[in-house]
Amino acid sequence: MLPVKRLSHIVMESPDVLREVAYYERVIGLVELGRDGSAVNLGTQAGTLAVTLQKGPAARLRRICLQVDSNMELSDVDRILRDDGISPATQTGFYPGIPATRSFTGPDDVTIDIFSSVTNQAQQPGRGGVNPVKLGHVASCTQGLDPLIEFYKDVLGFRYSDSVEGSFVFLRCGADHHSLNFLGRPRTGLHHIAFEVQDRASLMDACEVLGAHDIDIVYGPGRAGPGHNLHVYHRAPDGYMVEIFTELDQMSDEANGYFDPRPWHRDDPQRPRDWKFGKDRLAVWGALPPADFLD
Length: 295
Prior knowledge:
The protein is of the alpha+beta class. The protein is built from 4 helices and 18 strands. Keywords: Dioxygenase, Lyase, Metal-binding, Oxidoreductase.
């Protein structure tokens, strides 16, 4: 099992890369960290890579990029993956600040990139926007939920955090409540991506940014049940949902088996569990998600 430590960034395909770049720079507040051919690397204003955009026939999640411990040799990554029947390819110079990755095709034809060492790029001012601190998580729909969850747990070391009716599963690889989540649905593909902001004031500022750009809020503001984060959702120009969030649950001590106590928790202690419609309060406050949210 590979001990993944964090979600680093994702690679998205878009039929209109320039339009998406403009959205990420002006609305989300990311900055360009460099280009590799037609691919545009975007990161936070602190210099942390978050999203790479490349040309494609439709909006699509193409790659998920995960970091293992910085002291881990990539030769050890090779050995562990081969023990699980995976033969990774080596890529160099693909992402700014990341000298090499080990890459392989994961479930649902999404490429997984694994790396250990990274050098953040220089800080630079953005063009306004939300200005997140990092890419927080990515959510996808899948027709093969159970084997996909087994893959991320057994091969990449993710842990179960919560689920909703057994079909909306939250997985963590560090202290954050989730870095990946998956919905069992009749379709396969991206559901939403999420950016973390510093605090609740920053979340309200994000709402003002969306309003200034005439972008509708489709869900929120509110505080979720699973994860207990404050959140607001809107749609990117390519049509997928983007979440802005803060105050996500943390499990700072895995040995305890529960999330760090917070005043809005309904369970004491708050342990990973399956939430039920009609029984559990899926929003601590705020409206429930729209009817098509889980589609």
